Amino acid sequence: MSQWGSSDAASNSVIWAPANKKQAPTRTNANLMYGSTTSNAYGDGQIVSMLAVDKTESGVGAGGIIRININNAGTGYTGNTTVTISGGGGADGAANAQANVSTGKIISVNISNTGSSYETNPAVVIAAPAAITFNANTALYKDATFNALTGVANTTEIITTSSAHGFKDGDLVQYRVAAGNTAITGLADATSYYITNSNTTAFTVSSASGGANVGLTAGVSETGHTLRRVGQGYITLSNAPFQVNDSFTYAAAAGNTSLTGLTSGTSYFISTVNTSAISLSTTPGGAAVVLTPGVSETGHSITGVTATGTAVVGGATNKGVAHTGWVVRTEGTGGRAGRVQYEVLVAGGIVTDNNSDDATLPDA
Prior knowledge:
Layout: H1 27-33, E1 46-53, H2 55-59, E2 65-72, E3 81-86, E4 94-100, E5 105-113, E6 123-126, E7 132-134, E8 141-146, E9 159-160, E10 172-177, E11 191-196, E12 202-206, E13 225-230, E14 234-236, E15 247-252, E16 266-273, E17 277-281, E18 300-304, E19 308-313, E20 325-332, E21 340-347
Antiparallel strand pairs: 1-20, 2-19, 3-4, 3-6, 4-5, 7-18, 8-13, 9-12, 10-11, 10-13, 11-12, 14-17, 15-16, 15-18, 16-17, 20-21
């Protein structure tokens, strides 16, 4: 079996090249390395590919953008966003960033125009996530209403709310009775209780943390009964695009007063998140910051971390090839994204055909 051939095809690639990556020097492994674009295929955080380079390709000193790697996926993105490409000696490169709106992360950067004449990798700027605003007063409350007759079970002491309440065991809530309604027996208006035995739409309450359930007696059919969760680190945000331990910055706009417990312009971390609220901490995994509702102002916001990326140009690095022939190209990823090295395995004056490297090493 020939160890290599002069024609640009997987079957002619250098059979012993995989040994450089501690892989068996077999035809199968050589075929896998041929023209590879797989990141971390050899557990070293790099993209390693074997290419057949001819004289035309090795002489090219500029080219278009072939890929944009994501270095930091960011946090808090509520939708796709723009990408700005500049520098590198070229022009017309264009791309956009695609977000996963559930996690708030940028998951890919799609190149819409590769551009041309880039001599070095251009700078990539992914637009910052949009600020998510909330009311300093109402967003720190969570209300759940129930009917004093049909929503109260005398024997089990369970309160059933008219919709998903969003509370969890241990939450401190205040019982409120609307004007013209009568407090149910067992509870007192404007008095605080602790949530126990909660599920999506039902729970019991106790007068003390960890205490016994309060005995309840259903009243007349009235809907003006509310349990309100206040503060305790919760901010109501519908479908917040965050994950636990994500970082973000809190800001109070000019003329607004920062929430007690928070400092405008300071970074915090997501402590808990669900479909209706977040809590936040000063350190990853830390205790939730206790918040006090402020006055009714809408100029309060949280903004996630801006994603970052690195462009990789094909052609601009062709001149790093020392000689035509079979070459191993190693490209860094992550913090070393865009750093490229070439190693000539077999020098050859002529490489016929032209397949494995066109995207990475263009002909012009």
